[in-house]
Specification:
Length: 519
Amino acid sequence: MLKVWTRDVLGQFVRTRLTGHRLIVVSNREPFQHRRAGARIECIQPASGMATALDPLMRASGGLWIAHGSGDADRLTTDEFDRVPVPPSAPAYTLRRVWLTPDEEEGYYAGLSNQGLWPLCHNAFTRPRFDPDDWEMYRHVNRKFANAVLEEAGSDPTFVFIQDYHFGLLPRMLRDSGSNLVVAQFWHIPWPNREVFSAFPWKEELLEGMLGNDLLGFHLPHHCQNFLETVDCSIEAKVDMAGSEACRGGRCTMVRPFPIGIDFDEHVQAATSDEVGFHMQCWRNQLDLDNQVLGIGIDRLDYTKGIPERLRFFDRLFEQYPEYRGRLTFLQIAVPSRSSVPAYREADLEVEALAAKINFRWSRHSWKPIVLLKRHFAMPEMIALHRLAQFCLVTPLHDGMNLVSKEFVASRIDKDGVLILSRFAGAARELKDALLINPFSIEEGVSAIQAALTMPREERRRRMAKMRESVEHNNVYRWAGKFLSELARIEFPEYPEPIDVEFPQNCNAWNERILEVAV
Ligand code: F6P
């Protein structure tokens, strides 16, 4: 399949299509965080699918990224305008940090965003909490970010690209400012059906806030449909399902699906690096892989990721298939996340207790079936694991997309390895050659693991090759490029429809075409 979107193509696209405009990205999570490490200050890239996806776009385009400065050394590394050039090793764009007080962070982030909207939008059967004080703080922090955007944009024509559910009210605040902005938002998590959403006590205000966007993106068509139906039955607006837009007060919001991807090329390059080779050797020694088959899971420690359900698969597997006792190790990385939220602390305790219970039941001599590692790992360490594993379990109870599944596939330069994937992850629409399961079903989980362990090499290679093709093609540059194409067409309606799939026959011709259109 022809690969159209690359980092260079996107860079050229941004320079030519967004001409005369600034690009400002807004998110809660910052792409680079400075932390104290003893007497030193270290700069880390937080575990965030969103930040990982946006960083290549910003590197390609330059521009400004506004985010919450949450690192304990962030203030020490910013200038008097709260700005810092990033990435530190080779600055390509500017990060502007917004400071939040502990109360603001608690109400807007831990409260409304992560105890209200997060469980509401994910069907993981965790009850949302709707606290009016949190809502008030959410409003207040959205306003704080609006002020930062308006300050940075001034009167320049600017595209503002807002990320995620932390900023449902920000689009309307920007729209009502009367500034010269084209406003767009990508909602990185699912949108529930209208019955579920109707429980949200401030639904009219939130929807009105989101309809401040010119363009609103979700991962999947059915999230778009759910959103439009929610608008239709909740507020006065003209909803055009066929045209996929909602109009209110004379302004329309286009609602479109943009399934997100990863930087495939960079990932492949990393997978072949000496650094990854070094980590592979370390893991081999640490996990005794000369004598063990390895299965892996890599997730934020989040109750939507289905980690306890997944661990139970192994308990049942060792019961049903004694031949795997002593021979199979399942390594679960659980990156600590949102630990100020009670449901996350409970999930942590549950995972810890379950791993201990299964290990107590099945361990023999030096063999331990479950290795649970609860810390942040650098990408090369994780890619090394991808490359060593016979199978990878990505079994969220519900997930907008899930980039771990795509990272695993991209790492498999040998075209081997089996992906076991939840049907309820957005990625399942695309990675149809994974073994798709219902993550709530122990039977399906166990038979998928058994199938992965016995699958002939030819079949593994055939499935992996197809998935790699798809992940390579639907990469993050395509996601960003298609989103920005739609965005640019709002300002420049003469631009053609976003270019897709196999058109045109080669990238050079296409680059020329972009230039022609832009001139
Ligand atoms: O998936 C939604 C999301 O907000 C992502 O955008 C982000 O990668 C992830 O959750 C991490 O969340 P947090 O920023 O709260 O650690």
